[in-house]
Amino acid sequence: MTDLETPTDLKDERLIGRQGLRGAAEGLLDRVRGGDLGVLPVVIGLIVIWSVFQALNPIFLSSVNLVNLTLECAPVGIIALGVVVVLLVGQIDLSVGSVSGLTSAVMAVFFVDRRLPVWLAILAAIVIGCAIGWVYGQIFNRFGVPSFVITMAGLLGLLGVQLWMLGAKGSINLPFDSGLVAFAQLAFVPVWLSYVFVVVAAAGLFASGYAHARRRRKASLSAVSTQLLVARSVLVLIGLGVVVWYLNQTRGVGWMFVLFLALVLVMHYVLGRTKFGKSIYAVGGNAEAARRAGINVRAVYTSAFVLCTTLAAVGGVLAAARLAAVNQSSGGGDVNLNAIAAAVIGGTSLFGGRGTAFAALLGIVVIQSISSGLTLLNLDSSFRFMVTGAVLLLAVAVDSVARRSRVSHGRA
Amino acid sequence: MPILSLSGITKTFGAVAALTGIDLDVEAGEVVAIVGDNGAGKSTLVKILSGVHAADSGTITFEGGQAHIATPADAHRLGIATVFQDLALCENLNVIENLFLGQELRALRLDDVAMEVRSWELLRQLSAKIPSVRTPVASLSGGQRQTVAIARSLLADPKVVILDEPTAALGVAQTAEVLNLIERLRDRGLGVIMISHNMADVKAVADKVAVLRLGRNNGTFAVGEVSQEDIIAAITGATDNVVTRRAQSQERLRQ
Ligand SMILES: Nc1ncnc2c1ncn2[C@@H]1O[C@H](COP(=O)(O)OP(=O)(O)OP(=O)(O)O)[C@@H](O)[C@H]1O
Ligand SMILES: [Mg+2]
């Protein structure tokens, strides 16, 4: 009865067999119907937003503007990456803006006022960011205070510390000739290297996919066909190639954006392919079950808070470098809102346990697109707030509807 | 010498004395059934053994040495694996991720192929009817989830396996497989604690029946030497109880 041909994981006769490119497309459609939307809503949203702004102002999709967009994305995107981690464990950090502001102030004071080497100043900022998250984690674990209250207190308190540190003059300019400012404003990947990155990405994707498929076949499990792997890699090669070529028409790909992408990829690996990542999802899905499985739930919460505030510190330093200054409004205004909104818009569930690192990338691109488009239309921040608010509400609504659909399709 | 031995275990929840002075011995290669009415304290005892709750007083001896089971990780380390009544699975994770939760292979570069192969092995052993191990547990039926929870307890080569109502949601074939499994575990020299409301299952696989009543020991019987009526009497606390009265009235109706 047992046939040797069928892979172990496809033996159940209730499984609907799907093969090749067409089968892959059908499977995707099924998942979407079941409320497993993944990145689909945000990609559609992005297409709509870009079409509308391009129609209203043809400069929007110009190479110059898109290069600017990538640079604008990086600092807040890195902060959003941390927010994704905290949301995955089912908590929230409302203070990421204040953390980024305070840590950038720390960096500026050490670097400019105290004349310490820049790397030491940056290190100090990151250590302080790390410490703030650790304190959040301790308060959360020991006293059980809801994270939104702890971090709301942090939002106010840390802003106070930032204002106090900056003192009466209220702002510190970073010297233009420092490596940090140059990195954020002027450092672009050489053209040839940018294409090397593209080829490496596509080849790496194929190589890892192929090796994985081979190991699965050897273990008589089903595996993605080589044809599909090639198709995927070629798509990535063309897609990334076109983007990079277009950005290279003007200034090109900023190193700061590359740093952001690298952090997203590292986080993607950590969340998806390590034991620690699985424990993050487990704690967000069912903390008691995670505890009974022997996971140190408190440590997971603490590391999520620490990762979030540390990334907020990195984002804060980069934002300061891009502005070449730290002032009283660093990390204020819409930084907080944008970072959290980006994570949610990108598809991280507010209910915990669902989302990927790419949510930060997609979400921040949506938000910065709106911001950049409205700026090009000479609409001020009042409109930006209104539109971003509406998009955030839409994203959360999509999340909630998808969650309901998942429950009814058994994918909750 | 018993592999696991409890003495004087006491646990209170606020004003409720859930367990009072519980003694229990489990030998290696022995199946001990714990029976008792709803709320008798069976699950509480299981949770103390698996490190979910801490006992207020009493001692646990494991393999001859005194054991401190303060956290679930302590229980795992000793080699006590538990299937909880509420299963304790993560709905957002798939079957493989749930099976290997907390004991993944290769922490820094998960070996998902090996984990999937092992998952299928375990599930086949239990005659599991699970179409795909890559779907989230949320999409499984109650019995399929129970099978996953049971499979998980076998993963790390435990010395004592505790099953809290393992067959409550299972179909006929799967129940038989679990009973077979319990016998296999016993033959391999593991200690098994099984909680069940089904007297037929208890009589089929258990060597010893320990009765809990209102949080206290109410007798320990060797299965071969005790009738079902005696066990029920111990569970309900009287020979004249709702079960015997019902049996008598049925008898009278038939006459
Ligand atoms: N976490 C808790 N907090 C407070 N009381 C509890 C808790 N867990 C159990 N109890 C109480 O302890 C007593 C024993 O509960 P337990 O779950 O051990 O019963 P059980 O024997 O497993 O019953 P069942 O057959 O219904 O599963 C009950 O009175 C219950 O209300
Ligand atoms: Mg119970």
TrEMBL record, chain A:
Keywords for this protein: Cell inner membrane, Cell membrane, Membrane, Sugar transport, Transmembrane, Transmembrane helix, Transport
Subcellular location: Cell membrane
GO cellular component, one term: plasma membrane
Membrane-related topology note: Multi-pass membrane protein
Keyword Transport part of the UniProt annotation: yes
InterPro entries: ABC_transp_permease (IPR001851)
CDD domains: TM_PBP1_transp_AraH_like
Signal sequence range: none
Transmembrane segments annotated in the record for this chain: 37-60, 66-89, 118-136, 148-167, 187-207, 228-247, 253-271, 299-323, 335-351, 358-377, 383-402
Domain of life: Bacteria
Keyword check for Cell membrane: yes
GO molecular function: transmembrane transporter activity
Main localization category: membrane
Protein role: Part of the binding-protein-dependent transport system for D-xylose. Probably responsible for the translocation of the substrate across the membrane.
Name of the featured protein: Xylose transport system permease protein XylH
Native organism: Nonomuraea dietziae
UniProtKB/TrEMBL annotation, chain B:
Keywords: ATP-binding, Nucleotide-binding, Sugar transport, Transport
GO molecular function terms noted in the UniProt entry: ATP binding; ATP hydrolysis activity
Top-level taxonomic group: Bacteria
The keyword Cell cycle is assigned to this record: no
Domain ABC transporter: 4-239
Pfam families recorded: ABC_tran
InterPro entries cross-referenced by the UniProt entry: AAA+_ATPase (IPR003593), ABC_carbohydrate_import_ATPase (IPR050107), ABC_transporter-like_ATP-bd (IPR003439), P-loop_NTPase (IPR027417)
PROSITE patterns noted in UniProt: ABC_TRANSPORTER_2
Annotated protein name in UniProt: Simple sugar transport system ATP-binding protein/D-xylose transport system ATP-binding protein
Biological classification of the source: Bacteria, Bacillati, Actinomycetota, Actinomycetes, Streptosporangiales
